[in-house]
Amino acid sequence: MKVFLANCYPNMFKLLKLDCHDEPDCLYGATEAPHPLLNGVYRGPVDSANLSAIVTEVCRYFEQKQLPHSWWADTETEPAGLAAELASRKMQCLGRFPAMELNVHTFRVNNTSNDVEIIQVSTDKQMEEWTRVAGTVFGFTDEVRKIFEQRFFNPNKDAPLVHYLALKNGVGVATGSLLKSDDGAYVFNIATLDQERRKGYATALSSRLIADGIAAGAARVGLVASPEGTVFWERLGFETGGCYHIYA
To answer: Which of 5, 41, 97, 151 fits a disulfide with 71 by CB distance 3.0 to 4.6 angstroms?
Structure first.
């Protein structure tokens, strides 16, 4: 399970042909969007040898690109001193984020809301509405929204990364994304506008994209959850297979 979940971001960067550096001690990549969660280190050193030099080299890469970034550390293999090393660069731990995998054999579609339409985004206008909703939730600037639309949207329904939008009376209220790879499918960007939460929209949308992933042949479905989102995903059948500290 851990290898599958650890391959989530490497698969995304490689399938979308984004700038990705896969080195023995470190894997990191950049999307060029100036948002820390859209650029990062997704596999870091597992011991303290040369830790400072590796962190310095990687941080210099992002500094040269003038991009904020995040640093993901497996809580079981995080080297001693990493938190202090990153803190010296003004990067603080945002929390403990569970890496989770779905048992696809027991999954059942759970559509708890009948007042939204779930669509797969296929036009520029729909993608603009998607980034409006996701951008509101995740704090995207207009610049980040535009770059996201350029780099992460392909209208082809069979593209490796596809996006979903929940529409209420024709207006977007929730978003989600699905990455399809040879390893399986990964869920991203589940977001619901504050005023539309606790109405079952995220459950309906998540069920739809998971079902589409399984229908496309995914034998495994994984994601990295927010700390407060763990119970939500457990209700849909996901189990925790590891955890990350995310620094930004």
So the answer is: 41
Tens-digit pLDDT profile for residues 182-218:
999 999 999 999 999 999 999 999 999 999 999 999 9
- Long-range (24+ apart) CB contacts under 8 A made by 46-51 are 46/74, 46/77, 46/78, 46/79, 47/79, 48/79, 48/80, 48/81, 50/25, 51/79, 51/81, 51/82, 51/85
CA 53 to CA 199: how far, in whole Å?
A: 48
Nearest to 181 by CA among 52, 43, 8, 41: 8
10 Å CB burial of residue 215 (0-12, 13-18, 19+) is: exposed
Half-sphere exposure of 41 (CA within 13 A, CB side): 30
Looking at domain 117-219, its CATH architecture is 3-Layer(aba) Sandwich (3.40)
What CA–CA distance (Å, rounded) separates 110 from 143?
35
Q: In the structure encoding, which two tokens stand for residue 189, read together?
A: 């960007």
Q: Which amino acid is at 201?
A: Y
Domains of the chain by residue range? 2-97, 117-219
